Amino acid sequence: MWLLIQFSLNFTCLYSCSFWLRYGVLTNEQSIVMVNMIGSTLFLIYTLVYYVFTVNKRAYVKQFGIVLAILIAVIVYTNSLQDDPQKMIHLTGIVCCIVTVCFFAAPLTSLVHVIRVKNSESLPLPLIATSFFVSLQWLIYGILISDSFIQIPNFLGCLLSLLQLGLFVLYPPRSYSYTGQGYKLLEQAVPF
Questions:
Q1: Distance between CA 122 and CA 129 in Å, rounded?
Q2: Where are the transmembrane segments (predicted)?
């Protein structure tokens, strides 16, 4: 089991944006800083809004505490390496790579279900397609600035997204709603 605690998507995105923001600051890459400052802010707001509407607040606070503790621990540890800035950047880059690959691999948890039922209806096509194009853009950016910490996870993100998109060809959805079963359940649950 490669994830001991299964965090929700918003925690994973908050992790990813926060660590990439840190990496952007350390490497002085303003594009990375701006994108991830906005992303961190939006996912923090989303996390707080989700907290307001969640039923099991205690479990959510516990998960958020774990997320915060890990974020702080990584920042404190990398700060202790200030004598060696390259080591700080290297360690932060490794953490960014791991979190980004976990983010792209998260939809693969439904892979077994899709293959078993031979139907890709449960996969969110818009999210997967967007992940592919965003990964491709960051991969190109990583190549342009010669940064392997940007190239590697986004190359893997492209591959994982293509694998998931291939499931739509191999096992087409039975209905023409390409938003996935999760979105249908969400539409039924939200009273707006």
A1: 14
A2: 7-25, 31-53, 60-77, 89-111, 123-144, 150-171
Task: Kindly indicate the confidence band of residue 105, based on its pLDDT and cuts at 50, 70 and 90.
Answer: confident
What residue type is 89 in one-letter code?
Answer: I
Q: Is the pLDDT of residue 118 over 60?
A: yes
- Residue 113 banded pLDDT, cuts 50, 70, 90: confident
Amino acid at position 65, single letter: G
Count Cβ atoms below 10 Å from residue 125 Cβ, excluding itself. 19
Largest CA-CA distance found in the chain, in angstroms, rounded: 58
Q: Which two tokens stand for residue 52?
A: 């307001």
Summarize the confidence of residues 42-51 as an average pLDDT.
89
Q: Where are the domains of the chain?
A: 9-187
Q: Compute φ and ψ for 20, nearest 5 degrees.
A: -70, -35
CA-based R_g, the chain, Å? 18
Going through the chain in order, the beta strands assigned E by DSSP cover: none
In degrees, rounded to 5, the angle at the alpha carbon of residue 177 between the alpha carbons of residues 174 and 181 is 85
